[in-house]
Write a structure and sequence with these properties.
The complex is a heterodimer of chains A (360) and B (502). Chain A has a single domain, classed as Amino acid/polyamine transporter I (Up-down Bundle). Chain A is 76% helix and 0% strand. In chain A, helix 5 packs antiparallel against helix 15. In chain B, helix 1 packs across helix 3. Chain B is elongated, with a radius of gyration of 31 Å. Helix content of chain B is 46%, strand content 13%. Classes of the chains: A mainly alpha (360), B alpha+beta (502). At the A-B interface, helix 6, helix 7 and helix 15 of A face helix 14 and strand 12 of B.
Chain lengths: 360, 502
């Protein structure tokens, strides 16, 4: 029989892809363009390279640590009590990530389609399948991520219609915005690529042939990076930079502008598909946070933690109501994520190596 | 000692305890509840007073007559006891209870007393009445074998065995039902099927504790993984060729005496969308129809929901040229779209249910009255828009495309929640419903194997057979969802194609 707590390298690949591609991708071209104008894609490329280096570091870290999970490493590095406190911080951080992805998705959908539906109804509907899935085993989550990834080619296919009348001149002059602006764009670009840290938390479930299988998963970030590059260039050859800066969700606006004989307003269909993809990102974060909570309280099973976290998310998500609130909450996440995805893994790993050396 | 004269009756355990023929008859009759279809005939056998005992309801008397005559002749000729396939001598220590059970199964007993001890013959002459081998009504195909199972398990096993003459085909018997004592057969190929799965099903079958097992449907409920799922987890079929095809892929089949349906597991979702017809035509046609059937699943499930969502939430999705006709059609309808759809769907369900129970010609009339007359009148009366009629009719047709009856009912039931979700939340609700359905399918298992197999987990080789239908020579590997221990289906075919080029 299949091991239920085991995933293959390709499943890890799709888990990372689906964690990375969330709601953010809809607004990502606009977010970066506000900072770095028509050179947004250069910012994305730099961010992508940085992220690729990071993921290679993660890869090296997880393979040298054997088959321990990241939280086990944390416990080993900081000692039992400090380690548990740190994991508690992690769980708060991930619950916060779930909240932010929840509110930003609800914001998109209530701005775009459901202006009058109460937000809490949408949130319950959005969290319900997440709870149902995440209560199960990691292998079902991986399978779902994989299944949902079949949607990505469809989206790419729809967007290819932009290339019937592309305006490549909008991309010129390359580097015209200046280095300073491009570097400013790094921040939103990195934020859009967030989710690659899923590698840390899911890789311990890969049990057979670890080195080879984990290597497959490192291509996930490359895949997402190329997908985002496609998105950003597509929007930039469709809209002029000044237009992108005004419209909040360029990808949706492209869809709205495209009109087919069979279906008008493809954006509504697109948003429905996108909803599934955004939900997967939320599910994966929910799973990670439930794992963290399980490790903090030393629970046997994560399934009850999921329900409690989901209720918590539901209540806290109803606090920010206005657009500026959502923006502020997102900005806080930006700084937190730098700490939790870059600094803490570094420190943890250095301490872990030191401890190991001392023990020897 | 003499109970008879004392009018007292003592229950005995062994045949040898009985002192006379009358006493034996009395005892056996008591052990069988003094049933009145127990026939006792006193005869002379080998110069001795003997008695033949059988149940007239389970015994073929013509056969018995012939066998008994033959036995007598042999005895005259050779003066020795004989044993053949039908005739067996019973050992002296047999209990009356065992004898009664054998008689219930259709055996006949011949008792004669010789010098104070019993000589007992058992003559097998069970009455077998069965329907001829016919094509199953609910699984008709265009080309290919037209044979189907009937109610006799031996005939059914013969049909499978004659198609799989391999020493690897294993048949294991189970007896299910305290009262009915129904014979149940488990079939599998021991060099392909996963032993863990066979062990699992053996355990599940042995754990069944019931009085009567009258239908395979109840067995299904005893052994399936998840009772509360709307999806069937065992494939029902009445076609021996389908059973053989599935056995060869490493699945097992269950046959129950008295039931023409066999159960096949472990199966995945896509197995319910296969038909033996796919393998009889050209592979491109087979693939096309398979994809069409899976599309029919989506249409039957989602079309009314999508229509309701569009009409009540996303009217702007309709392209400009069709906007006006659509608007005109739905403008004067007094009911909300959900109610409209529910009304029509229920009507169709009623027509279907009425059509099944009635004899064929009347059933067709009902269909015409229901479909044409009600449909036309309801639009003219202005209750329901004509677009809704198109949608519901398309949905009904697509729901009958499914080759499997259980999956067909599943689809028909599942579309109601989708319609309600659509009327409440539009596309968002439909998407949420789809996500939950997908998660359910991913979590569901059939005999501990994943239900949505070639897709979640993804197996490219299985997609070639389960989802699409590649040419037979190309399917060199068995689908992975049944976890066969022997993956290789066959070697290289069509090698002459390359040889000739050289």
């Amino acid at each position: 029989m299949n091991e239920k707590n085991e995933i293959s390298g390709w499943q890890l690949f799709f888990l990372i892809v689906q964690t990375q591609i969330g709601v953010g991708a809809l607004s990502m071209p606009a977010d970066i363009s506000i900072e770095s104008g028509h050179d947004a894609w250069i910012s994305l490329v730099i961010a992508g390279v940085l992220m690729q280096i990071l993921i290679l570091f993660y890869f090296w870290m997880m393979t040298t640590a054997g088959d321990m999970s990241y939280f086990d490493i944390t416990k080993k590095a900081f000692g039992k009590i400090a380690g548990r406190c740190l994991i508690a911080l992690y769980s708060i951080y991930f619950i916060y990530v779930v909240i932010v992805s929840n509110i930003s998705f609800i914001k998109v959908i209530s701005e775009w389609i459901y202006m009058d539906t109460p937000r809490w109804v949408l949130m319950i509907l959005f969290l319900l399948p997440a709870v149902y899935l995440v209560r199960g085993h990691v292998s079902t989550i991986a399978r779902f991520s994989m299944l949902v990834s079949f949607f990505l080619p469809i989206l790419v296919f729809i967007l290819l219609f932009v290339y019937t009348q592309p305006e490549f001149l909008y991309l010129l002059p390359v580097g015209g915005e200046g280095i300073e602006n491009i570097l400013k764009g790094l921040r939103p670009a990195l934020f859009a690529l967030l989710g690659f840290e899923a590698f840390l938390y899911f890789s311990s479930y890969v049990k057979k042939d670890r080195k080879k299988e984990l290597k497959k998963a490192t291509y996930a970030t490359l895949f997402v990076f190329i997908f985002y590059l496609f998105l950003i260039i597509t929007t930039q050859v469709f809209f002029y930079v000044d237009e992108i800066k005004i419209i909040p969700y360029p990808v949706l606006y492209i869809m709205k502008a495209l009109s087919f004989v069979i279906v008008d307003r493809v954006d509504l269909l697109f948003l429905t598909f996108w909803m599934v993809i955004a939900a997967t990102s939320l599910m994966n974060y929910l799973f990670i946070s439930s794992q963290a909570v399980r490790d903090v309280f030393l629970l046997k099973d994560h399934s009850n933690a999921v329900v409690i976290i989901a209720l918590l998310v539901l209540f806290i998500s109803s606090i920010p109501t206005t657009k500026t609130d959502v923006k502020e909450w997102t900005n806080v996440l930006l700084y937190l994520s730098v700490v939790f995805t870059i600094f803490l893994p570094f420190i943890t790993f250095i301490l872990f190596r030191l401890r190991r050396r001392i023990e020897k | 000692m003499n109970e008879k004269s004392g009018k007292s009756f003592r229950k005995m355990q062994y045949i040898r305890e009985c002192q006379s023929l009358d006493e034996l008859i009395e005892q056996l009759s008591f052990h069988m509840g003094n049933t009145q279809d127990l026939v006792t005939v006193k005869v002379q056998f080998a110069d001795k007073e003997s008695v033949i005992i059988y149940l007239e309801s389970t015994t073929d008397t013509n056969q018995l007559e012939k066998t008994f005559e033959w036995l007598t002749n042999v005895y005259w000729a050779s003066d020795e006891p004989t044993e053949t396939l039908r005739i067996a001598q019973v050992e002296r220590g047999q209990t009356l209870d065992d004898t009664a059970k054998k008689i219930l199964l259709g055996d006949t007993y011949l008792f004669s007393m010789e010098q104070g001890s019993w000589i007992t013959y058992k003559i097998g002459s069970p009455l077998v009445l069965q329907r001829a081998i016919q094509e199953p009504k609910n699984e008709q195909i265009v080309r290919g074998a037209h044979a189907g199972f009937n109610e006799n398990i031996i005939t059914n096993l013969y049909q499978v065995r004659s198609r799989l003459k391999s020493p690897h085909l294993v048949i294991r018997y189970f007896t299910i039902g305290e009262l009915s004592q129904t014979k149940c057969a488990l079939l599998y190929l021991d060099h392909v099927a996963n032993p863990m799965i066979i062990e699992e099903i053996t355990m599940r079958l042995q754990s069944i504790n019931t009085d009567v097992s009258f239908s395979i449907g109840t067995i299904e409920e005893y052994i399936e993984d998840d009772n509360f799922s709307p999806f069937p987890q065992l494939l029902n079929t009445e076609r021996p060729d389908r059973v053989v095809g599935n056995l060869a892929e490493g699945r097992f089949a269950l046959l129950l005496d008295g039931s023409p349906t066999s159960l096949i597991a472990p199966v995945n979702f896509f197995a319910f969308y296969q038909s033996p017809d796919d393998y009889n035509g050209r592979f491109m046609v087979g693939t096309f129809y398979r994809l069409l059937r899976i599309a029919s699943f989506l249409i039957a499930l989602l079309l009314p929901a999508i229509y309701i969502a569009i009409i009540s939430f996303h009217f702007e999705i309709i392209p400009q040229d069709i906007t006006l006709p659509t608007k005109r059609a739905i403008e004067d309808i007094p009911y909300p779209p959900l109610f409209e759809a529910l009304l029509l769907e229920l009507t169709i369900e009623l027509i279907r249910e009425a059509g099944i129970r009635l004899p064929n010609p009347i059933g067709q009339t009902i269909g015409i009255v229901g479909g044409l007359v009600i449909g036309d009148a309801v639009v003219n009366a202005g209750f329901i828009s004509n677009i809704m009629i198109i949608v519901v009719a398309l949905t009904a047709i697509s729901s009958f495309v499914v080759p499997s009856v259980e999956m067909n009912t599943t689809v028909r039931i599942l579309r109601f929640p989708f319609m309600i979700l659509a009327s409440l939340f539009g596309f968002f609700g439909v998407a949420i419903g789809l996500i939950i359905l997908t998660i359910h399918l991913i979590r569901l298992e059939s005999m501990c194997t994943p239900y949505l197999s070639p897709f979640a987990p993804f197996h490219l080789t299985a997609v070639k057979d389960m989802f699409l239908r590649f040419p037979a020579w190309n399917q060199t590997q068995r689908p992975a969802d049944a976890m066969p221990i022997n993956k290789k289906r066959h070697g290289k075919n069509r090698w002459w194609k390359h040889e000739r080029k050289k």
